From TrEMBL:
InterPro entries in UniProt: 3Fe4S_ferredoxin, Fe-S_cluster_ET
Job description of the protein: Ferredoxins are iron-sulfur proteins that transfer electrons in a wide variety of metabolic reactions.
GO MF, one example: iron ion binding
Coiled coil: none
Signal sequence bounds: none
Cofactor: [3Fe-4S] cluster
The keyword Transport is annotated on this UniProt entry: yes
Name the UniProt record assigns to this protein: Ferredoxin
Stored SUPFAM superfamilies: 4Fe-4S ferredoxins
The entry's keywords: 3Fe-4S, Electron transport, Iron, Iron-sulfur, Metal-binding, Transport
Length: 80
């Protein structure tokens, strides 16, 4: 899967490096390095990182920031 981090938005909060350490890593205090072509197996972790990034700096194939967690939240509240 492909992903892009907008390094102009990224504030180095390192949420992504914590959630998907095989894809994102902090280099020094503030700069992020990442693998723009992450393995498919990392998809779920990348999805968590996308959702967790406080500034929505991560964009990934087939995942749009607001996407899945918002949708599943809606399902859960509808299913009464
Ligand atoms: S979680 Fe977002 S702001 Fe934090 S290091 Fe990752 S991309 Fe940057």
């Amino acid at each position: 899967m492909r992903l892009v981090v907008d390094l102009n938005k990224c504030q180095g909060y390192a949420q992504c490096a914590f959630l998907a350490p095989d894809v994102f890593a902090m280099h020094g205090e503030e700069s992020l390095v990442y693998n723009p072509r992450a393995e498919e197996e990392q998809r779920e972790r990348v999805a968590r990182a996308v959702a967790a990034c406080p500034v929505q700096a991560i964009t990934a194939d087939g995942l749009d920031g607001a996407g899945e967690s918002a949708a599943s939240g809606r399902e859960a509240s509808d299913a009464r």
